[in-house]
Design goal:
By secondary structure, the protein is of the alpha/beta class. The chain has 23 helices and 14 strands.
Length: 549
């Protein structure tokens, strides 16, 4: 294959972009490469293999059917109150449980009705809900005729989602006490709210030192660099190897030890990681626990656990350090619902953030009392989890804050589905999908990765420079570094094969690594991507050999 048509200087300039912006350039190249013949554009787009984005190509159909069935019942509840052409009323709570049972009996063949009934019955049994109150929350929220009350999260929805997190994020062994939840517009909104409120409440200040466990999802790298924050960032790098050329993507003890410095006020991690897609090891979790117990007791931990359901027996660090941890979870990947924007922030009721706010200097307390004074006669008593809600709407619009109620119902149904046998079977299927795709990718690429029982497999990060050293020795790796830019392979892939991958360096991983999403293409596409990646790698090998002649 020929080399890329871009100069090294051009590639250097493009490499300054965020990997998600650089991806758009690769897509343009891939489309151009596949559309050489007139009239072939539509066909070319089908041939392009874009493994650069983590939007899954599976969809959880069962809970969606249950939601639509609930919609029909909710409309019947509305029409029961006020019937006119295209006009209904607000559903009534009294007797709604019995009316739901009657609706189920009258519509046994309605798609989703059986699962909906199972979800309602399970929730009542497990959480001890009053049936009328629960069914009314579902129907009134599905109609969406009221503002969210409470604004942070609906009461039944909060208990259901907490139960889901207990099972899936805490391996059915939640910490003692209660974790309060704030339903958000996806995990991205949760991230924005957390950074903003920590600053607004004086827990973090501009220029403060925070740590990132890298490689990590790029926004965690880019947000701290904004002039709003301008944080002093310490990186905790997963730099261990199992052998020459085979990365383990694990954190050495000396890297984790950076968190022991009390000047490090917060650490952010994605667990399982993105892109390496590995859950935090017990060794590292225990080391962080020791650090919090001894040298840095106020260390704030923000853990983004969106991929936790892809690891057997996953246990969030929020289970071990509930007082110090803000948990972020999104439903997007597990259920194939990125468009729904369903996320949640969890914070244990006994937490260091509220404690730190209580210990602020009086001048700071007075400032915060003025900020939140319109919400309560005792603004100092407002918990941080509720300040997050107020700050998400500039405080003044707190009375209309909160996630859309139909979305909270969808979140509840996704959670209840998971807690049923059908949901557990679904979970096993999607785990099998990503691991099968990983095997096909590695088969085509002829590359090796470290065996790890905590591998989620949603992504994989392949270090091409390490692979070069493993296959041909350090001389070949040095040749690549000297003669090419780290993103050169990605330009070649896009131009010559129509394959789009992301640069691992954009995630604070090794510069010569590439991130492959294993979620968004058909199984055999990953075998093709692997073959193309190996062909590009072989081109470099031939160029190296020619240079030695």
């Amino acid at each position: 294959m020929p080399k890329t048509t871009f100069t090294r200087e051009e590639i250097q300039s493009f490499a300054q972009l965020s990997p998600f912006e650089l991806k758009d350039k690769f897509i343009q190249l891939a489309q151009a490469a596949q559309a050489d013949e007139p009239g072939q554009k539509e066909k070319s787009q089908a041939q392009m293999l874009n493994a650069g984005r983590g939007n899954p190509n599976w969809v959880a159909t069962g809970p969606r059917e249950a939601f639509f069935a609930l919609g029909y019942f909710s409309l019947s509840e509305s029409r029961r109150v006020w019937t006119a052409d295209d006009l209904g009323g607000m559903p009534e709570p009294t007797g709604s449980g019995d009316r739901f049972d009657a609706f189920v009996r009258r519509h046994p063949d309605l798609p989703g009705i059986e699962l909906l009934q199972s979800c309602v019955e399970y929730a009542i049994e497990r959480f001890g809900f009053d049936k009328d109150a629960f069914v009314h929350e579902l129907t009134d929220s599905t109609i969406g005729d009221n503002y969210p009350v409470p604004d942070r999260m609906l009461p039944h929805a909060e208990q259901i989602v907490r139960g889901y997190l207990d099972d899936e994020m805490f391996d059915r062994q939640p910490p003692a006490g209660t974790m309060s939840l704030f339903a958000t517009e996806g995990g991205t909104a949760a991230m924005c709210y957390i950074f903003d409120s920590l600053m607004k409440n004086g827990i973090l200040k501009k220029g403060d030192r925070i740590a990132l466990m890298v490689p990590v999802f790029t926004p965690y790298i880019e947000i701290p660099e904004l002039d709003t924050y301008d944080f002093d960032v310490v990186t905790v790098s997963a730099s261990l190897f199992t052998e020459t050329g085979v990365r383990k993507w694990r954190y050495p003890e000396e890297e984790v030890a950076k968190l022991a410095d009390p000047s490090v006020k917060m650490v952010c991690l994605v667990n399982p990681s993105n892109p390496p897609s590995l859950a935090l090891s017990e060794r590292v979790a225990n080391q962080i626990k020791d650090i919090v117990a001894t040298s840095n007791p106020n260390l704030l931990i923000v853990t983004d656990d969106v991929y936790g359901t892809f690891v057997e027996g996953f246990r969030s660090i929020a289970a071990d350090l509930p007082r110090n941890t803000l948990l972020v979870y999104s439903y997007s990947k597990h259920y194939g619902c990125t468009g729904h924007r369903l996320g949640v922030i969890g914070l244990h009721d006994d937490n260091v953030v509220d404690e730190m706010i209580a210990n602020l200097p009086q001048e700071e307390k007075d400032r915060l009392n003025r900020r939140y004074g319109t919400l309560s006669l005792r603004p100092e008593s407002i918990r941080f989890i509720d300040r997050l809600v107020a700050d998400s709407r500039q405080v003044a619009l707190n009375h209309t804050a909160g996630l859309s109620l139909p979305q909270q119902v969808m979140m509840s149904l996704f959670s209840l589905f998971d807690l049923l046998p059908q949901g557990q079977a679904y979970k096993k299927r999607i785990r099998g999908i990503v691991h099968r795709r990983l095997d096909l990718l590695l088969e085509g690429a002829q590359m090796r990765i470290a065996d790890d029982p905590k591998r989620a497999g949603y992504y994989v990060e392949l270090d091409l420079l390490a692979e070069a050293e493993r296959v041909h020795g350090k001389v070949f790796a040095d040749f690549l570094e000297k003669n090419y830019e780290p993103v050169d392979p990605l330009f070649r892939l896009a131009e010559q094969t129509g394959v789009v991958l992301l640069n691992g360096g954009g995630f604070d991983g090794p510069e010569w690594s590439v991130r492959v999403s294993l979620a968004n293409l058909d199984d055999l596409d990953y075998l093709k991507i692997g073959h193309h990646l190996r062909a590009i790698f072989n081109d470099y090998t031939e160029e190296w050999k020619a240079s030695q002649a």
